[in-house]
Structure formats: C-alpha cells, structure tokens
Amino acid sequence: MWRAILNAFRIKEIRNRILYTIGILALYRFGANITVPGVDASVITKQVESGLLGIADLFSGGALSKFAVFSLGIMPYITASIIMQLLQVVIPKLEQLAKEGETGRRRITQISRYMTTGLALIQSIAMVFYFRNFNAIPKFDAIHAIMIVLTLVAGTTLIMWLGELINIHGIGNGISLLIFASIVSRIPGQLVSLFRLKTLNIVYIVVIAALAVGIIMGIIEMQQGERRIPVQYAKRIVGRKVFGGQSTYIPLKVNQAGVMPIIFAVSLLLFPATIAQFTRVRWLQTLATSLSPSAEGKINPVYAIVYTLLIIFFAYFYGAITFNPMDTADNLRRYGGFIPGIRPGKNTADYLSHILNRITLPGAFFLALIALLPEILITYGNIPFRFGGTSILIAVSVALETMRQLESQLIMRDYEGFLK
User: Fold this and answer.
1) 214: which residues sit within 8 A by CB, 6+ positions away?
2) What CA–CA distances, in Å, run from 215 to 106, 257, 372, 399?
3) Is pTM beyond 0.90 here?
4) Does domain 1-191+389-420 bear CATH number 3.30.980.10?
5) Going by C-beta distance under 8 Å and a sequence separation of 6 or more, which residues neighbour residue 362?
6) How far apart are the first and last CA of the chain?
C-alpha cells in the first residue's frame, strides 16, 4: 500500500489531483469553523448536544454546533438528489431525461442545484426562528435574520460548488469526500472525550479498539459482498467476424442501497420530533417521545422496532429503484445474453428479482444493526460519543470508493493499485 502511495505521488497528474482535493477539503473545514455573525454559538452548542440536531451536526462536521457558515452542510444537496431519484420513477419526463445520457444528466443536475438552494433557504429560515427561542440571536431583527439566512444559503451553495470542483479536478466523489471529511474531523475530539473518562483502563481501551476493528471489517465485508449471476453470450457471425461467446456475470450487491435506507429512516423518525419543537399539540408530543432513542436509561423498544422496520422497507424500496430486473433482462436478450438454465425475458426478470429479494434482507438487517449500534454503546457501553453506526459506514464506503478510483488511475499507468 505504501509503495502504491509513493507511486501515486511520483506521477505529476495524480499528485496534482490529490493535492487539489486536500486543498478543497482544508478550505471546507476552514469554513466549518467560522461562526455566523450576530449569533451566540455557546447557546446553540448546548441545544445541539442535548437535542435532536446531533445527527445533522455529525454530517456537518461540528459546524452546526458552532453555527458556522457551513452549518447546513451538504444535507440539502443530498435531500434534493434523493427527491430527484424518487421523482424519476414518478414523472416520465424526468425518467426520459435520465436515459438521454450526458445531456439529460446535466439537466437533472441543474434541477437538483435549484432544489438544493430552495431547501437550504427553507431550512435556514427554520433554524433562525428555532434558535431564536433560546436567545441564541441576541439582536433579532429583520436585518440580522436576513443576513444569517443569506449566509447559510451561500454556505450550502459554496459546499455544492466545492464538491463539483473535486469531481472535475480532484480524486473521488466530491460530495462523498466532504461528508467523509466532516466525519473524520470529529475523531480527535471523540478520542479526547474517551480518554477523559474516569472508568478508563487498559481493558476498556483494548475492547474499544477490538470493537472498532471488528465494525470496520464487518462493514467492508458487507459493502464488498455481492452475488454474481453467471451470464453467457451466444456467438454471432457478422460477415467474416464472430462476436460474443464469452462468459461474464451480473454483480448484485448484498447492500444494494448503500446508506440511503438509514438516511430515509432517520428523516422520518426525526420529522414528528422536529414538528413537535414548534407546536404544542399533545398527541404529536406523545408521538415524538415514543420515538425517542432512549427512555429511562434504556433503549426505547418502540424506537428500535420502528427504526429497524423502516430501514428494511427502504432497503427494498431503494433497491427496486436502483436496479430494474426487467430492463436488465431486456438488455441481455437484446445483446444475445442469457442466464444458464433460465429462459430469456420475463423468466430472467423474475429470477433476478427473486435473488435480489433474498440478498437484500440480510443486508437490511446489517444496516439496522449498524444504525442502532451507537445508541447501544452509549446506553450500555458508557461511551460518551456516537461510536460506529452511520458515520463509520459512510466513512468506510467513501474510502473504498476513493481507493478504487485512485487504483484505476494507477493501473492505467501500469502501477499496482491499493486493493491488490
């Protein structure tokens, strides 16, 4: 691995891309520590640490707790992208754009940008009025409110632009790397809080280290796990040339939906609690309390059951959106391919659907376990921060994807990659 890193820095083009990416990430972290003017950040920090905004603060890399320029983080863009993916299934015009190649994708990306700006505007206004209730904005008037809202919206727009710059001039997926930087940036502070525990001893440290290694290894195995469906292509003679005849496979991932089911489930679980913060409706307050992660020092069983069911549902739902068995079966038949022992057409589509449904269930249960792990460790393991869970899942997934892209760059120049 170290030799591969040295080889990457020996090539000028790859070295420039890596340094460019590091520079953008440093600029992003700098903006995540600049507090918006006219705000008492200490009040907001207390509300974020003890309230329901902890997950949003996690994805912003601690920017929300400081009420920094990048407080909204990249979540408005992710939300807009998810909405666009769902709308492509519902609206035929968007589905047609998605199939038009690069031109259609650019149009969809442009719509996502406008939607991101609109969502950022709505969220920033809601945040201003929410934190106003805790006297976090000492001088609240129209001028200060507009300034804060415009600053937050501009911060989200800038983050979106920085992510696209990494896509063009850097290495890896820009948006994913920004989230990765946000998650990794909190590790030093979490380690400091861990070593400040009074119950800390060598056994505790060894258990935590072994648990961390085990979680990372499990996530890697699950992310890399796939069911390979063999495909055989028939030979075709065109003129004097023979085409086809080779064997290949269709890789169906165990975790086809990635981290999206967790994000969907968290959004639904937080929605009643978020609305309850602004209203006095009794039944809504009761619903928000029943869906809270912990109750009386224990994990709330209603929360755990509902969370798990939502993750399983969205794992199947998102998997059905990202992989269409009928389209795959039609493409195989069009190019002369078939699965041995399975008739082309509808039988092939049914077979792929059956396999996908079988492998999605264990992947969904694994996601549910990873999502509930932080609450389990906080409640029963006396760990003072959210260890594991969605953060490690995202970090490991982004790291693997970035290593693959860097590996492909090295292989193009006859060097060994990271994953050899």
Assistant:
1) none
2) 37, 19, 13, 15
3) no
4) no
5) 254
6) 8
Same CATH topology for 1-191+389-420 and 197-383: the answer is: yes
Measure CA 148 to chain center.
27
Domain chopping of the chain, boundaries: 1-191+389-420, 197-383
Q: What is the DSSP letter of 234?
A: P
- Which tokens go with 287? 């619903």
Residue 151: left (phi > 0), alpha (psi -120 to 50), or beta? alpha
CATH fold of 197-383 = Preprotein translocase SecY subunit (1.10.3370)
Question: What does the block give as tokens for 66?
Answer: 């400081």
Kindly report the backbone phi and psi dihedral angles of residue 60, in degrees, each rounded to the nearest multiple of 5, phi listed first. -90, 0
| Beta-sheet strands, E only, within 345-407 | none
From the list 90, 88, 112, the residue with the least C-alpha distance to 100 is 88
Please give the helix or strand (H or E) that residue 248 lies within, else none: strand 247-253
Q: Could you read off the pLDDT tens digit of each residue along the chain, which spans 420 residues? A: 566 667 777 778 888 888 999 999 999 988 888 888 888 877 777 767 655 566 667 767 777 778 888 888 887 887 788 788 778 877 888 878 877 777 888 888 888 899 999 988 988 888 888 778 777 888 888 888 899 899 999 999 999 999 889 988 888 888 888 888 888 887 777 777 777 766 667 777 787 778 878 888 888 888 888 888 888 877 666 666 666 567 788 888 888 877 778 777 877 777 676 666 556 667 777 777 777 766 656 777 888 888 889 889 888 888 887 788 888 888 888 877 888 888 888 888 888 888 888 888 888 888 888 888 777 777 766 665 555 567 777 788 788 878 878 877 777 766 555 555
Tokens representing residue 171 in the block: 């290495």
Beta carbons within 8 Å of 189's beta carbon, 6+ residues apart: 62
Q: Is 72 exposed, middle or buried (0-12, 13-18, 19+ CB in 10 A)?
A: buried
